[in-house]
Amino acid sequence: MKVYLAAWFSSKNETLAKAEELRACGIEVTSRWLDEKVAPATLMSDVTEDYLTQTAQIDIQDIDAADALVLLTVDPENGPCHRRGGRHFESGYAAGRGKTLIICGPKENVFHYTPGVQQFDTWQETKEFLLGCYVLEYASKKS
Fold this sequence. Notes:
It is a single chain. By secondary structure, the chain is α/β, with parallel strands linked by helices. The chain has 4 helices and 5 strands; from the N terminus they run βαβαβαββα. The longest helix has 20 residues.
């Protein structure tokens, strides 16, 4: 199973730790944005337009390579403000491409109520769901 993790850029380090948890369980994480050398607090104005264009293309390739997208969310009423919003584009793109969309955390917008979207309150619940999918995928390949 291949998963793309989408989250706000400033949470890159926390999201990378989640990616390592999944990798340790045999799930491939396609999110190369987690390996970017710029700091989590980097502003878009701190990098070149070429860098941003290249990064967007890589993210699209990584979503295309995944079976599912996990969107890590925050409480839209009380959570910190995340101005960039790339994660919402990523989840919309993934949904449009027919990928499984999994929300980890609260539903942040109307599209998170779309039929077929999976939602879990915690990372542990999300990880257990992904592991269940991985086991089913592995079992179907063996038979």
